[in-house]
Design goal:
single chain, 358 residues, alpha/beta, Rossmann fold, Dihydrodipicolinate Reductase, domain 2, 2 domains, 8-stranded parallel beta sheet, 8-stranded mixed beta sheet, 11 helices, 22% strand, globular, binds NADP nicotinamide-adenine-dinucleotide phosphate, NAD(P)-bd_dom_sf, Semialdehyde dehydrogenase NAD-binding domain-containing protein
Length: 358
């Protein structure tokens, strides 16, 4: 049995699957022991996917003995049940759209587990977090952490790179337009035309801007309001979200400085491609990506960067790697929960998956 801390990933969907592979692949490098994953439904059509995970070295657990029989019929071999294994692991990374429900039902009654992480849809699960953005806001009482959504990562990455270079927020106002992909590549659903989404989170507009403000509030505690707003639209594509920003700064910078600030952030990848399909295809084919995922927080479209003459208005466009750009936040939060003193060093292992250019 491998020594080291035990991690349990709950859910094997768009986010859970690559995370299971990422943890399993780098397990030894980052000092982890067993990587368990909990698959709820014994689906015939997903048996191969689960087999890939167990062959990679991850350990399957299921709901109960009754479900175990169904998994066995599919040629899959669970090593235990969720209620039992969940009690014995060090960190649980929830990758379901039901993290808050599972928190009420199970996680709250697991006192020995060091910490719990949930994903974008699970507002108020715990401290909102994005890797490299608000690490300094994590404190020992943060046993529950919510990894904010992919577009929130993207928004925060742009805000951080351009307006927080010197710590304070050099931002008069930020306006963002988010063209969301209608579904994931693994899904059958879709839409025919572009659809506007509601102004659902006043005064920020969309949930992504509201969530970005929640993250910024963990850093700038004395501020109630953050001057950002976003309009989201849904577009008939499955590949990537597309994102336009307009920032008005308090003190101006020139084009070279704006580019330099983006270049300095290793979580920003640059591209000369103009379309999301070109970016998506290149990344999928690259040996650098893991399961075709881009782990950078944003793919910045080089030729879109614009700066006004007085240096106060910066605009640009990016592609959001929606099924990859939040994964490192789950890894960083896990490693932080296990040992805040060593997690930054261990995170360097994942630099090899980051793109400079796509
Ligand atoms: N999709 C993205 O691009 C993306 C990007 C960033 C963040 N997120 C966030 O990540 C989370 C998961 O999204 P996803 O797109 O990965 O979902 P998904 O592809 O639909 O997968 C959901 C997974 O959760 C499992 N599940 C659902 N309810 C469960 C429960 N009560 N108990 C145990 N397992 C349960 C499902 O298991 P079975 O199929 O076995 O039943 C499935 O494996 C959401 O919070 C979402 O907001 C998604």
């Amino acid at each position: 049995m491998p020594k080291g801390k035990k991690v349990l990933i709950v859910g094997t969907g768009t986010i859970g699957e690559p995370l299971i592979h990422l943890f399993t692949k780098e397990r030894k490098e980052i000092g982890l022991g067993e990587i368990f994953f909990y698959k709820r439904s014994p689906l015939e059509e997903e048996a191969d996917k689960v087999k890939d995970m167990t062959e990679a070295g991850a350990l399957l657990i299921v709901e109960n003995k009754e479900k175990e029989k169904k998994f066995l019929e599919l040629g899959l071999y669970p090593v235990g049940t969720f209620p039992k294994i969940a009690k014995s692991v060090d960190v649980i990374v929830d990758c379901t759209p039901e993290g808050n429900k599972l928190k009420e039902k199970f996680y709250n009654s697991l006192p020995k587990v060091k910490g719990f992480i949930a994903q974008g849809s699970e507002k108020d699960f715990g401290k909102p977090y994005a890797w490299t953005i608000n690490d300094s806001a994590l404190t020992p009482e943060n046993r529950f952490i919510q990894i904010v959504s992919c577009n929130t990562h993207q928004m925060l990455c742009v805000i951080k790179s351009i307006t927080m270079a010197h710590g304070y927020l050099n931002l008069q106002y930020g306006i963002f337009t988010i063209f969301r992909r209608a579904s994931d590549i693994s899904e059958d659903k879709g839409i025919l035309g572009v659809e506007f989404e509601k102004y659902s989170h006043p005064p920020y507009g969309s949930h992504q801007a509201d969530d970005a403000a929640r993250v910024l509030r963990t850093l700038y505690k004395d501020r109630e309001f953050f001057p950002i707003s976003a309009q989201a639209l849904k577009a008939p594509t499955q590949l990537m979200h597309t994102f336009c920003f307009n920032l008005e700064l308090k003190s101006g910078i020139d084009l070279a400085e704006a580019r330099e600030r983006l270049c300095k952030n290793p979580l920003v990848a640059f591209t000369k491609f103009k379309s999301s399909n070109k970016v998506f295809a290149r990344a999928r084919d690259s040996s650098r990506s893991i399961l075709g995922r881009i782990l950078n927080q944003t793919v910045f479209c080089e030729q879109t960067l614009g700066v006004s003459d007085n240096g106060l208005r910066i605009s640009g466009g990016c592609f959001t790697p929606q099924d990859g750009n939040a994964l490192l936040s789950s890894v960083a939060a896990t490693l932080w929960l296990l040992d805040p003193k060593t997690y930054l060093e261990k995170m360097k292992v994942f630099d090899k998956f980051l793109f400079d250019k796509i």
